[in-house]
TrEMBL record:
Keywords: Heme, Iron, Ligase, Metal-binding, Monooxygenase, Oxidoreductase
Stated name of the protein: AMP-dependent synthetase and ligase
Family statement drawn from the similarity comment of this UniProt entry: Belongs to the cytochrome P450 family.
Function field: Involved in the coupling of aromatic side chains of the heptapeptide of vancomycin.
GO molecular function, one term: cholest-4-en-3-one 26-monooxygenase activity
Organism of provenance: Amycolatopsis keratiniphila
Gene Ontology biological-process entries: cholesterol catabolic process
Pfam families in UniProt: AMP-binding, AMP-binding_C, p450
Length: 925
């Protein structure tokens, strides 16, 4: 049997070891499963000194893998399941993991991560019985393995990655478990945990936060190693936490202050139902807890709260029970052996009680930690061997109790005075309008920094926060500490442990008071795409909450001025890529794929009839049905007619007369092609032009001017036209696309009338404006970059290569919208269920992390992995067609291109969606 579980199995093994949401297992079965895992890992060549990474949720298998590694000399590298594939790839590579174990819901992302990772992560396992995305199903493999006690067990370890506050995450080697050490060392550790930290033996522990965080992991794993039953919840829900504590007679749990706040905010009748009689201790630490919140918890749950101060790097270094805390309110406790707390002033001298300075932990040499692959970072956390800091500022009182006032790098220096955010946050959190709060310093010309509060508000918070929060703060804080401004954010960037990513916030709010182009406002784009602003965002706030401007909409009931919900603007290439490929988290259907929020349920329903605004099986069904029409082969079938249209158009404009490069040229080709494609008589193409302008140019004063009813009328008119057309082709099919579309079958089903009309309308818009703006934008780019134009004209760069660079350069569709359908994360920024997320292709396409010299038009750029056509399940169906149209037109234009001049100012669409010109006076010669 696994050495560390021997005692409990020897006692008969019948008691419950683990209860997760799938059921309960006893000690004997757990032991056998761990044996099989050990055998499987050995079979795959893993052994002492190797590393194994996991992207697993809170579940039984996670602890099986952990225990197996702890008995095989393997180091487990837990990975936060919210991370994106590049982030996971980084950890897999940096840790040198040879194996990756995942659960099915993370297999896709993890599979992409493995493909991106460097190193030799070759053993890929997924829990359950079904193989997924290159991962082998583990259950059939375990069944083949021996359940007998493995020979030669040797101790393994864990290595957790901390997000830190700057730079890439680093793996922490903290010496809690040591690879190859005798198991008696683990026994010493568990004894210490029991005696000093009060981790219970043979009781019942609750894991109700992500196990990949050190405190959750160690309190639950050590409890299990001490023979306590571990009850595991996949995710936190305040009401069910209360229920499970009572039902499962939980004696010990680890919670974080944000969980306390959510528990305290439950309705009184729910709170009153809770008994909590079984609870012996509830640890919390790793993040500040407002004294008021803590007092209310103690009033409610009794003196069971045990606070510690610690970090992944050094474990828990102080401790205080509730009673001691009530005598020393606000403290995080007294040092526990073998730790000693010392406060050092700026000059490095030890500070007396009451004096504030940086908090250091001193231990015997050798009982410290290091960062994997980061000796410099290890050095900078240490004063000398055995003396290190977690980066906090605080003081000790006469009794040796430690009080934290903030993190060294969080301290605000305003007008030369030090201000500690934690103190202000502890006040603000008590106001009923405040759900959560972070206080940061923002740049100030006069004071260097000034105090700003970033607030997550409660549902009934007033509009004017300053009016209520300012007097509230002044009651208990000196004037220089009261925030000068309050900023509402839907969700503070907290990790599941409660740790606040102030670095993320500081970046987002560094620009308070500085005028920046508003990327949410359609009018901003009348002056062109604000590329400098996108560059700044990529650099400093790649996933930033972006409030929406007030926009006026008209209808028969009059004008209304409305503000959208605000959204997360995603501007880096990797993040746009990753969000687009996680449709199970970022839905196109929930609120549609367009930035403006649907105004009514009817509008949402209408939007959802469009392919772009569908998800899952419905999307797959319709997409497969229509995709056949857009294959490269079918599109090549249109080559001759496109070439004919292009030739005639070029002939018309190259006679030396002035023309409008938008209306007379760029708009014409896609319209003519669409007429062929959609079964329109060419003379009806003005209808297409009008509909498409009205729908896409909704915000532009010249086209849609925000008139809601006109928008709906256009929709209805176009629908009616399509319906007539569809019926006609159902009765008398020809060989055009429409006939193929209305009669095509997939899984024995045809498109319904409504589905057909919706798709037809999407094509009217998608195939029209996009290509128009690509053409006009390309002409403008070629005129403005004569050297590049000449490379094209001389034949130095192939037309096809140039076309893709022009598509990147123009990026006709600047963004699409998604809606988060569960709480998740984008590059470390938590995103809540229901939040709007907008992916900016226009920014991704200029990301220097992917494109060398991205702001230079380089017609020979190859490869050119631009995202102008989107990525993931909604990748543009018209991409081949658009490329063909552009290439054909360029080829026809080549002999004349050097003579093209712009003869007047270009006017642009007021749209935050398409990047387009409205008019572009031009002449050849
Ligand atoms: C340069 C020209 C074009 C650009 C830049 C462009 C861009 C895009 C983008 C970014 C998407 C992804 C939408 C999302 O992820 O939510 C998309 C989807 C789509 N495009 Fe295009 N497009 C172009 C031309 C065309 C043409 C010519 C057609 C057809 C005639 C077309 C038909 C579609 C359709 C049907 C979809 C929806 C696919 C789905 O939801 O599964 N596009 N396009």
């Amino acid at each position: 049997m696994p050495a560390l579980l021997n005692d409990y199995i020897a006692e008969g093994g019948a008691g419950t070891a683990i209860v997760d949401e799938a059921g309960a297992v006893g000690w004997r079965l757990l032991g056998e499963r761990v044996n099989r895992w050990i055998a499987l890992l050995r079979d795959r060549g893993l052994g002492e000194g190797d590393r194994l990474a996991c992207v697993l949720g809170n579940r039984r298998e996670t602890f099986e893998v952990l225990l197996a590694c702890l008995h095989s000399g393997i180091t487990v590298v837990p990975i936060n399941w919210h991370l994106t594939d590049p982030e996971i790839a980084y950890i897999v590579s940096d840790s040198g993991s040879k194996a990756l174990v995942v659960e099915p819901s993370y297999a896709d992302t993890a599979g992409r991560a493995v493909a991106r990772s460097t190193g030799e992560c070759t053993t890929l396992l997924v829990t359950g019985s079904m193989a997924e995305s290159g991962f082998e199903a583990v259950e059939p493999l375990l069944a083949l393995m021996s359940a007998a006690e493995p020979e030669g067990q040797t101790c393994g370890a864990t290595m957790l990655y901390t997000s830190g506050t700057t730079g890439a995450p680093k793996g922490v080697v903290n010496g809690l478990f040591v690879v190859g050490a005798p198991f008696s060392r683990v026994a010493k550790l568990t004894r210490y945990a029991h005696v000093v930290l009060d981790v219970p033996s043979r009781e019942r522990c609750l894991l109700d936060g992500p196990w990949y965080h050190s405190s959750q992991l160690f309190f639950s794993l050590l409890g299990l190693l001490l023979g306590s039953t571990l009850v595991i919840r996949r995710s936190f829900d305040p009401e069910s936490t209360l229920d499970i504590i009572d039902r499962e007679r939980i004696t010990a749990a680890h919670l974080v202050p944000t969980q306390f706040i959510r528990l305290l905010r439950l309705p009184a009748e729910v709170r009153e139902r809770f008994s909590g009689a079984s609870l012996g201790r509830v640890w919390h630490g790793g993040g500040p807890c407002s004294p008021d919140v803590k007092r209310r918890m103690i009033d409610w749950w009794g003196p069971v709260l045990t606070e510690y101060y610690g970090a992944t790097e050094g474990g828990a270094v102080t401790l205080t029970g509730s009673r001691d805390w009530l005598a020393h309110p606000g403290s995080v406790g007294k040092a526990v052996p073998p730790n000693e707390i010392v406060i050092l002033g700026e000059d490095g001298t030890p500070q007396p009680p009451g004096a504030t300075g940086q908090v250091f932990v001193r231990r015997a040499k050798g009982q410290s930690f290091s960062y994997h692959n980061a000796p410099e970072k290890t050095r900078s956390a240490h004063l000398e061997p055995g003396t290190f800091t977690f980066g906090d500022v605080g003081h000790l009182d006469e009794d040796g109790f430690l009080y934290l006032t903030g993190r060294a790098q969080d301290m605000i220096v305003s007008g030369g005075v030090n201000v500690y955010p934690a103190e202000i946050e502890a006040v603000l959190i008590n106001h009923p309008a405040v759900q959560d709060v972070a206080v940061i310093g923002v740049p100030d010309d006069e004071f260097g920094e000034r105090v700003a509060a970033v607030v997550e508000v409660t549902a009934d918070a007033p509009e004017d926060l300053f009016a209520v929060l300012d007097p509230f703060c002044r009651k208990s804080l000196a004037g220089f500490k009261t925030p000068r401004s309050y900023h509402v954010i839907p969700r503070l960037p907290r990790e599941a442990t409660g740790k606040l990513r102030k670095d993320v916030l500081r970046k987002s709010f560094a620009a308070i008071g500085i005028e920046r182009p508003d990327i949410a406002h359609p009018a901003t784009f009348a002056d062109g795409v604000p590329h400098a602003e996108f560059a700044r965002r990529r650099e400093t706030e790649p996933v930033a909450w972006t409030p929406e401007p007030l926009l006026t909409r008209h209808s028969s009931a009059g004008s209304t001025t409305q503000r959208g919900s605000g959204y997360w603007a995603v501007t880096r290439y990797d993040d746009v890529y990753s969000v687009s490929r996680r449709p199970e988290e970022f839905s196109s259907a929930a609120k549609g794929a367009f930035l403006p929020d649907p105004r009514t349920p009817g509008d949402l329903k209408q939007t959802r009839q469009l392919l772009v605004s569908m998800d899952g099986p419905e999307h797959v069904r319709i997409r497969r049905l229509v995709a056949t029409v857009f294959t490269p082969k079918s599109v090549r079938g249109l080559s001759d007619s496109i070439a004919g249209h292009a030739r005639r158009l070029v002939e018309k404009v190259t006679d030396g007369a002035e023309f409008d490069a938008v209306a007379d040229f760029a708009a014409e080709l896609p319209l003519l092609v669409l007429c062929d494609l959609l079964g329109f008589p060419p003379e009806d193409r003005h209808l297409l032009y009008r509909w498409s302008n009205a729908l896409v140019g909704f915000d532009d004063p010249e086209f849609g001017s925000g008139d809601v009813e006109a928008y709906r009328r256009t929709f209805a008119e176009a629908f009616a036209y399509a319906m007539k057309l569809g019926l006609n082709r159902r009765e008398t099919p020809t060989d055009d696309l429409i006939s193929r579309l209305v009669n095509a079958e997939f899984d024995g089903k045809r498109l319904s009338d409504r589905e057909f009309c919706s798709f037809w309308l999407l094509l009217v818009v998608a195939g029209n404006e996009t290509t128009r703006h690509l053409i006009s934008g390309s002409l403008e780019a070629l005129v403005n970059n004569p050297a590049e134009r000449d490379r094209l004209v001389s034949g130095e760069v192939p037309v096809a290569t140039a076309v893709d660079e022009l598509i990147r350069w123009v990026t006709p569709i600047m963004q699409f919208r998604r809606t988060a359908v569960r709480d998740t994360e984008i590059a470390g920024q938590p995103v809540a269920e229901g939040d709007k997320v907008v992916v900016y292709y226009t920014s991704a396409n200029r990301d220097p992390a992917v494109f060398t010299d991205p702001d230079r038009l380089d017609l020979g750029r190859d490869p050119n992995p631009h995202l102008s056509f989107g990525i993931g399940p909604h990748f543009c169906l018209g991409a081949h067609l658009a490329r063909l149209e552009m290439a054909t037109l360029l080829t026809e234009l080549l002999p004349h291109l050097s003579r093209l001049r712009l003869t007047g100012p270009v006017t642009r669409l007021e749209s935050n969606f398409v990047n387009g010109a409205k008019s572009m006076p031009a002449r050849f010669g």
